[in-house]
Amino acid sequence: MKIIGLGLQKGGVGKTSVSVALAAELAKTSRVLLIDADPQGNASGALLKEIDMELADALLNNCPVDQPVTKTEVPNLWIMPTKPIDTEGRERSKLRVYKKNVASDEPFVMDDLTKEFSNDFDFCIFDTSPDFSTFEENVFFACDEIVPVMKCDTFSTDGLTIFLENISDFRRRRRCSKAVIKTIVINEHNASFALDTNIKNAIISQGGYSKIIVPQDQAFKKAQAYQKTIQEIGAKASTLKAVADLAASLRG
């Protein structure tokens, strides 16, 4: 099973949208487990109408590790969910409590957790929060590959720089030989905006990584609203190609 984490030190860049789209694309040919490791639980809310047990329950030993794993309506796609924020903005998940109080005592817990599923799935995708706490380090320690997701704005560019530095430092401190970065996703690119194009070109000019350009597409918002994937909603051909290219790079 190949394990992939999507992340960046900035919120609102579309990590969840890309995570769900990537998981659905990989599920066309493989068995995929999406783990919602973000306390906001947006990936879970995008794919499930009801959630019983969640990731935090498994981490807190409230249930067997495989009990929260839930089949989605997408063929070959399962999710280990996190309860999303409710309609009044209240957080329902126990994950933030786990992050604050327990994660630092269990540096290998996510590595151990994913090993439980190594014979059941071909891919495991982690959707992460914008934090870089011990919990996120524990997630990245389990990953074979990390994919930063950014937008074409100055804050995202700064976030990418910080994220790359943090990953490098984390790999050194934790003596982690995995968690490599090969591909950067530039999300919500609008070719009609000069700033978007300038930032995109600046990132592309940096060596060392492949770049996937995902265009701005209302299909992502529609997919969230209807609890569907962009593949089901009918995204732009260029969007579907970008997601397919990302999936192909990870299959390889």
What's the short story on this structure?
The chain is an alpha/beta fold. It has eleven helices and eight strands.
Structural commentary:
This protein has 252 residues and is of the alpha/beta class. The chain contains eleven helices and eight strands. Helix 1 crosses helix 11 and helix 5 (109-115) runs parallel beside helix 6. The chain is globular and about 50 Å long.
Helices and strands, with pairings:
Layout: E1 2-7, H1 15-26, E2 32-37, H2 42-47, H3 55-59, E3 70-71, E4 77-80, H4 95-101, H5 109-115, E5 123-128, H6 134-142, E6 145-151, H7 154-173, E7 183-189, H8 194-205, E8 210-215, H9 219-226, H10 230-233, H11 237-251
Parallel strand pairs: 1-5, 1-6, 2-4, 2-5, 6-7, 7-8
Antiparallel strand pairs: 3-4
Helix pairs in contact: 1-11, 5-6
Q: In angstroms, what separates the terminal alpha carbons?
A: 13 Å
Number of helices: 11
Helicity level, as a percent range? 40-55%
Provide the β-strand percentage band: 15-25%
Shape: globular
List the secondary-structure elements in sequence, H or E.
EHEHHEEHHEHEHEHEHHH
**What structural category do the secondary elements indicate?**
alpha/beta
Average pLDDT, rounded to a whole number, is 94
Which stretches are low in confidence, meaning pLDDT under 50 for 5 or more residues running? none
- Specify Rg, calculated over alpha carbons: 17 Å
